[in-house]
Amino acid sequence: MEQTILYWPFLIYVAIVLLIVIIMILLSHVLGERHKEKLTDEPYESGIPPTGNARLRFSSKFYLIAMFFVIFDLDVAFIIAWALSFRELGVSGFIGVAIFIAILMAVLLYELSIGALDYGPNGKKILKFKNMFSK
């Protein structure tokens, strides 16, 4: 009998949540607008006529920035994990993360030096660098 007593607050909470959801759905159905245009049932358009093709080409610079973001975001996750266990790791952990950050800085300086982050009209510098090693 004790276990059912422990579950009654949770069951009341679930019942209240379901009641609120049902009330919200019913109110939106009763109070919502009713319109039916020609393109209302088109996917993702909400009654707006579709224009053009959904398959757009993105510049490779977009993907480059996305990769940099993922790489450096993961690095931040590692550094935060190190910071949380700083006292337990001691000096060896500090040296390890210092080497890790030094490698990150070296990679960032390398990317800057080859023009990987250059988006101006002179962004062809990275292509010259690649052609230098492809021969």
Q: What letter string, H or E per element, gives the SSE order? A: HHHH
CATH topology of the domain at 60-134: Methane Monooxygenase Hydroxylase, Chain G, domain 1
Which geometry do the CA atoms define? flat
Strand content: under 5%
CA radius of gyration is: 28 Å
Question: What are the segments in which pLDDT stays under 50 over at least 5 consecutive residues?
Answer: none
Portion in helices: 55-70%
CATH architecture of the domain at 60-134: Up-down Bundle
Output the number of helix runs.
4
Largest sheet: none
General description of the model:
The protein is an all-alpha fold. The protein has a domain at 60-134: Methane Monooxygenase Hydroxylase, Chain G, domain 1. The chain contains four helices and no strands. The protein has helices spanning 2-31, 60-84, 86-114, 125-134. α2 runs antiparallel to α3. The model has no long low-confidence stretch (mean pLDDT 79).
Question: What labels describe this entry?
Answer:
mainly alpha, 0% strand, 135 residues, Methane Monooxygenase Hydroxylase, Chain G, domain 1, 4 helices
Sum this structure up briefly.
With 135 residues, the chain is mainly α.
List the helices and strands and how they pair.
Elements: H1 2-31, H2 60-84, H3 86-114, H4 125-134
Helix pairs in contact: 2-3
